[in-house]
């Protein structure tokens, strides 16, 4: 996978920004580093400022695994669009969101019944409304925690699906949109023709896999030969540098 800060990457950025483009980003691990305790995260004010500058020039979207209510106060700026729970929570469709919350009730009940076993294995359950996250980042024995989660997945109620992440398993309604669905909807909603999307985890891969050839997709983190992203950056610190480059390109485009 080619590094974005290369001649090929610069050419791809220039080509993308010749068209009306949506600029979209994951949050944890992309705009900000992964930390042990998710509640400790706050977007760096300098990064928030760069995103605010970009949002004045192009639509900016944050598509996160967090709930919208959890993420918004952590941002320090107001994006054009904010999608939560891996694309399943859309503020513009409250009825659909409410229906997905109800669809998760069987999963909530099962996890509540097994709370003691999960806690003993170091698994914590976070209810995000339209998704349930089983975290084990702080588990003393990650293998035991994963085994406890796998046991629960064997009896998963019908109508739900699950997918992994970095020391987390996520449950959502089977028909809930994923990040690829969310990005396609946002491109149409914003009147854009193309999109840039940066993400760092397996739940970002549907975007990378399904993106049209003229989109710019970026995997954050060390090179992953299995990823379908076009380019990579090494860290959220390099994502901050990308924001500067996008802003510079857009200002130069406006002067030409």
Structural class: alpha/beta
Determine the CATH topology of the largest domain: Rossmann fold
CATH superfamily of the largest domain: HAD superfamily/HAD-like
Shape: globular
Low-pLDDT ranges: none
**Gap from first CA to last CA:** 32 Å
Side-by-side strand order of the widest sheet? 1-12-11-10-2-3-4-5
**Secondary structure tally: strands:** 12
Query: How would a textbook summarize the main sheet?
Result: 8 strands, mixed
The portion of residues forming beta strands comes to 15-25%
- Give the H and E element order: EHEHEHEEHHHEEHEEHEHEEH
**Helical residue percent?**
40-55%
Number of helices: 10
Corresponding CATH architecture of the largest domain: 3-Layer(aba) Sandwich
> Using only CA atoms, what is the Rg?
19 Å
How many independent structural domains? 2
Main attributes?
10 helices; eight-stranded mixed sheet; Rossmann fold; 2 domains; alpha/beta; Alpha-Beta Plaits; 41% helix; 256 residues
Summarize the structure.
This protein has 256 residues and is an alpha/beta fold.
Explain how this protein is built.
With 256 residues, the protein is α/β, with parallel strands linked by helices. The protein has two domains: 166 residues, Rossmann fold (3-Layer(aba) Sandwich), CATH 3.40.50.1000; 75 residues, Trehalose-6-phosphate phosphatase related protein, domain 2 (Alpha-Beta Plaits). The protein contains ten helices and twelve strands. The two termini are 32 Å apart.
Helices and strands in order, then pairings?
Layout: E1 2-3, H1 7-16, E2 21-25, H2 45-55, E3 60-63, H3 68-75, E4 81-84, E5 89-90, H4 94-103, H5 105-113, H6 115-120, E6 124-127, E7 132-135, H7 142-154, E8 160-165, E9 168-173, H8 179-190, E10 194-199, H9 205-210, E11 216-220, E12 231-233, H10 236-255
Parallel strand pairs: 1-12, 2-3, 2-10, 3-4, 10-11, 11-12
Antiparallel strand pairs: 4-5, 6-7, 7-9, 8-9
Helix pairs in contact: 2-10
């Amino acid at each position: 996978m080619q590094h974005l800060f290369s001649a090929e990457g610069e050419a791809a950025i220039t080509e993308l920004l010749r068209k009306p483009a949506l600029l979209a980003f994951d949050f944890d691990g992309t705009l900000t580093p992964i930390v042990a305790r998710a509640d400790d995260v706050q977007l760096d004010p300098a990064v928030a400022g760069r995103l605010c500058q970009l949002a004045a020039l192009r639509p900016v979207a944050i598509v996160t695994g967090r709930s919208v209510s959890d993420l918004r106060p952590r941002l320090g700026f107001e994006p054009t669009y904010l999608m939560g729970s891996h694309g399943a929570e859309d503020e513009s469709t409250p009825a659909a969101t409410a229906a997905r919350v109800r669809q998760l009730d069987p999963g909530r009940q099962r996890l509540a019944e097994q709370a003691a076993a999960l806690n003993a294995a170091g698994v914590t359950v976070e209810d995000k409304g339209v998704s349930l996250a089983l975290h084990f980042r702080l588990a003393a024995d990650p293998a035991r925690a994963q085994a406890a989660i796998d046991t629960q997945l064997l009896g998963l109620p019908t109508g739900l699906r699950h997918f992994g992440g970095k020391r987390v398993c996520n449950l959502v309604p089977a028909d809930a949109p994923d990040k690829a669905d969310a990005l396609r909807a946002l491109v149409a909603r914003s009147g854009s023709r193309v999109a840039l999307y940066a993400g760092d985890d397996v739940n970002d891969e549907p975007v990378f896999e399904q993106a049209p050839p003229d989109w710019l997709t970026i995997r954050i983190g060390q090179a992953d030969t299995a990823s379908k992203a076009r380019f990579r950056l090494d860290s959220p610190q390099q994502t901050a540098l990308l924001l500067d480059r996008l802003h510079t390109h857009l200002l130069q485009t406006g002067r030409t």
